[in-house]
Amino acid sequence: MKRDYPNLCKTITLGNVTFRNRMFSAPMGGTDITNDGCIGDKSVAFYELRGKGGAGAVTVSECMVHPQTDGSHAYHLDTAILNSLASATYTADAIRRHGAIPSLELSHSGMFAGTYMTDKSKQKSMNQWGPSDTVRADGVKVKALTQEIIKDIVLSYKNVSALAKRAGFEMLLIHGGHGWLINQFLSPYFNKRTDEYGGSLEKRCRFAIEVLKAIREAVGNGFPIEFRMSGSEFLEGGYGLEDGVKIAKMIEPYVDMLHVSAGTYQKGFGDTHPSMFKEHGCNVYLAAEIKKHVSVPVATIGGLNDPAQMEEIIAGGKADVVYMARALLADPYLPRKVMENRPEDIVRCLRCFTCMAERAATATRRCTVNPLIGREIEGDEIRPVPVKKKVLVAGGGPGGLYAAYTAARRGHDVLLCEKEPETGGILKSEQAIPFKREMYELSKSYLRMCEQAIPFKREMYELSKSYLRMCEQAGVSIRLNTEVTEQFAEREKPDALIVAVGSESVVPEIPGIHSDFVIPVNNYYREKAKVKKDVIVLGGGLAGCECAIHLGMEGKNVHLVEMREELAADANVRHRPLLLKEIEKYVTVHTGCRAVEITGQGVSCMTLSGRKITVAGESVICALGQRARKETVDKLRDAAPYVAVIGDASKAGTITNAVYQGYHAALDI
Fold first, then answer.
1. What are the CA-CA distances from residue 101 to residues 222, 395, 566 (Å)?
2. Euclidean distance between CA atoms 327 and 331, whole angstroms
């Protein structure tokens, strides 16, 4: 067959190993790591799904090589640990049996041991080791590694590499970026040594080269070794791209591929993991420049999820391999869909950081758009039901659409009703904000999954990034401009009703709030033409902050008014710091201010100290929160034998909860 993306779908051979395509699954940490560092069953299933989804390689992350100085937060591979080798073997086998090449990331955190621990107090109780004596920004003392310990760490890399090969891993990725130990030696910011491991760039590369030589001795010729590096640290006092090129050239003789990432995790999370505020592929130029100076293949990474863009990267000679992490959480089958010429079926990553925030908060994995993530061990196949039932879904937001899709895949007769002229629910409000376009496109993707055979205003929805093939198989009937009422349900007589009617804007009785120049944030996409140059966003939660940033990016003078003393308290711990940085760029903030009146001149506020101030502006965006449509829900609780209330209809919350609850509500029928 002719591949639509021939360069992405080409094989690549590293060492003696041939990979089925150029789309690799980047290192992502598992979840159920045992107390002694073994890979748990849930994590095995987590990695296996990436292999099943068609990735060329699947990288297991992170295996810490030297527990004596870094026994902190991830896997260990040690025959002295019961089940350590066995769990690694089962993991490699689970990946390999689907045709993907299993790869293991070998790492050492150096002075940041324990970074991923949920209990940060334990991190501070550890001995922290780095290239040089120093004190971290959080006050933790760091000891300089002695040459004796350095030699022991190098030996550990060698020993663990041999065990990884024995366990069935067919490639090793050596983590030399993002501020971990090898990067700390490479970086003039971290490395202040005066011996043979510090000073000149050649000396700062010495540790990395010793590690790579030891690994090659352990695994032999032909076994692929990949080195992950930051092309630039994006850090004052660190190295830039010019030195990144020099480092790559020094490392090149000892590796089969250079994996070029960016930044330092501790100082530039948003560089290493590009947020929704950055362009997709914003770090590709680093790999492209390094590729000009080396002869080994080069891999790139950073917010990639569009097959057309990734194809251009390979075809244009910017890189030889593209890595994805978050994109393969959103859609583990992305590589397979590319190989099968089904790009319209891909569910795009929103870059919302739910996956990483959940890991920091609860040590689990979760994805906003994919309810399977973190729970892959429960199975990713939808089992057909023995008895077909009539299912009615009230509401065409993300939760309702996913519920309808899942119920139809199980074999039920499904009718989804949406009272508005189009589906998407609250996601429709995201279409006017460019950096959140994936959220709006997500609603269209879910719609494709539920599209009936008879066309219904298809021109309202783009065909790209959709689940057209899946929706045709699902066969859900969709009725727009149709509200599910008690009377409607009585006529339809469903066996099961999933109530996904969403939430509504909170509009408190502030004088002037119903004026024509006041626009609810949910309606901004319809009424954006009414917004003038000087605009006030009333409400500093996540929705208000993101809207304010967008308006600022458009060149408007934006004032953000919030009655609490902090902004975006409802944003997750990974997204919030990056959000606040954008707020600093584009928005004038007024916290501790309660709106008491809205006029054509602005918003009158009362401060926490009791002082009255006026924030001037011609237009006002009202973003004061959402509340469940309780009255609508209560009327439908007895409208079918089985009734499930999901998402914002139950409690105003996140898309993550709506999709997850919709999926499981359908499985329960």
1. 14, 42, 46
2. 6
Sheet strands side by side (includes 612-616): 593-599, 602-607, 612-616
- Rounded distance, CA 370 to CA 397, Å? 15
Q: How far apart are alpha carbons 205 and 370 in whole angstroms?
A: 41
| Per-residue pLDDT tens over the stretch 419-444 | 988 877 666 555 556 665 565 565 55
Backbone phi, then psi, for 130, in 5-degree steps?
A: -150, -175
Q: Tokens representing 236?
A: 């004052």
Q: Can you state the angle between helices 147-167 and 84-96, rounded to 10 degrees?
A: 50
Mean pLDDT (the chain, rounded): 90
Which of helix, strand or coil describes residue 49? helix
Task: Report which of 564, 565, 563, 567 is spatially closest to residue 549, judged by C-alpha positions.
Answer: 567
Ramachandran bin of 395, using left for φ above 0, alpha for ψ from -120 to 50, beta for the remaining angles: left
CA distances to 37, 110, 122, 238 from 145, rounded to whole Å, are: 23, 9, 21, 20
| Rg of the Cα atoms in the chain | 26
**Mind listing the pLDDT tens digit for each residue in 156-180?**
999 999 999 999 999 999 999 999 9
Residue written as token pair 């097959």: 307
d(Cα 16, Cα 214) in Å, to the nearest integer? Answer: 19
Backbone angles phi, psi at 250, to 5 degrees: -75, -30
Residue identified by tokens 């401060």 is: 607
